[in-house]
């Protein structure tokens, strides 16, 4: 009997029941096994040769997989949940992540009912492929600093989208460089000579006939990224506009609209409405953190049980490295963290539902707290997971450095999470502003709620010193 | 902190209180420092590192409490709750020891109590050890999804590392490309 079979005999709990806890329900366990098998048995989805492929070959291969997946989804009439599972098991960052994960949610969150009726059917059928172009070459976390402009021209009933400076070049959006036909572009809305700040616009960037960039649009890939595989399977893009005209109703108008004569009209819906979509995205990021960390921990735990080093007694095998306290003290907290993040993700799913239902009732009271806590949770989970994957690599000794360990590629694919949605340290400073504001309001008798409720008890927590 | 012996550390109320106290104390300390600065923005900038620590403490408290909340629900299956309880304690106590500076500097813990936390953590590791492989099996990751020779379900690591190495394109021929141009001339010299 080999080491792992021996290990499994010593388990003191029902593994199948624990799988249900991890997945959330028996149906989810079954779904994972069914779709996992479907992907693993399809030669198109082969990935063991990925690390030896050059960038172009890698990218083209991912396009092939995405197209093949789409054909399976359609021919087998997969449900949304099944399709999502299928895409995640293919296990390669692709334009589809942004199309389904950012483009569509942005339209749902920021478009009016009419706009959703116009754009969502096109997006669902992938008649158009979209991405999310917010970040600029010189502007990352600070959205207020974006420079791209969308100036309304009442004479033609159009916005003129323009890139006024080099630093205003859109930079990093996934799927933008070579695949997307449309982008949600964040730009400063200017009408009647007044700047109303950053708003979201749907801008077509490529022809639906021949896929060439439209006149006035400069779009390209930003180049090779960190590691073998990783985000190199995807076309992160750059984008510039030279006075590109778009129809007035391409402004996503749930929060504010511009009338035919150029008048800016807030809809009365708070701008924080966009936070609902952010909670959705961050919930997904936390769930991803638990998944990625669990993959690294699985590799490190199993190999630590197989690997033997030192500690021999005469005639006996060497000691399993998992029995060393130094190994346990680095590995077991990461194992516990993977489970902790899974429960956190489940809670964030509830939080998203709660926020969404409140928004529908016009209740925006919990948004600041939810916005702060989810940005902070995104920050700590992604940082810990990236560090945890690297720790797992080291826990596998020299073999962890081999791509055959799966860990280098896992790290390369995961580590960008530390800087998307805002740099992790900057996100923590946003949380800090919320905490300081909450404390400053205590004197006025305002009771903190939600995850900050304990601060209402600050005097007690301090007094016990 | 009421801890006087190692086992006191695996009380969920004790752990939650410790995390709440750490977070509240770090936040209040920052607020006090900022209030004493010449203006609020300057203070925020000056103490940004401390603010990051306070925010991290707040977020880690949320994760710990969500894990604890999950344990309050019905969890079917032989031994499942017990394993999750161990994992929750490990998660929380490993943070207590990793962030010892926060707990010590705010005066919530003594160094003796920190030693007790480390001792309890070692005990928890020993409890977890027989279940470690089964706990990662519970993630339900297939060999295809893991894409790792080291993490194979069957544990046949070394045979596969060896055989796969021989199949690598670098080993397609016994004599490497480039030998005639770049190795042979060197050897001849």
Strand content of chain A: 5-15%
Name the overall outline of chain A.
Answer: globular
Low-confidence stretches of chain B: none
Percent range of helical residues of chain A: 40-55%
State the distance separating the first and last CA atoms of chain B.
75 Å
Described by its quaternary structure, the protein is heterodimer
* Elements of chain B, N to C (H/E): HHHHHHHHHH
**Sheet bearing the most strands of chain A, described?**
6 strands, mixed
* Average pLDDT figure of chain B: 95
Please provide a written account of the structure:
- The complex is a heterodimer of chains A (465) and B (189).
- In chain A, a hairpin with a 5-residue loop joins β10 and β11.
- The N and C termini of chain A lie far apart (55 Å).
- In chain A, strands 1, 2, 3, 5, 6 and 9 form a six-stranded mixed sheet that branches. A three-stranded antiparallel sheet of chain A has the order 4-8-7, with no helix packed on it.
- Chain A is of the alpha+beta class and 465 residues long.
- The model of chain A has no long low-confidence stretch (mean pLDDT 93).
- Chain A is built from 13 helices and eleven strands.
- Chain B has 189 residues and is an all-alpha fold.
- Chain B has helices at residues 12-36, 40-46, 48-71, 80-98, 100-105, 111-128, 132-137, 143-146, 157-167, 179-188.
- The longest helix of chain B has 25 residues, at 12-36.
- The radius of gyration of chain B is 26 Å and the shape is extended.
- Chain B starts with 11 loop residues before the first helix and ends with a helix.
- Chains A and B meet through α1, α2, α3, α8 and α9 of A and α1, α3, α4, α6 and α7 of B.
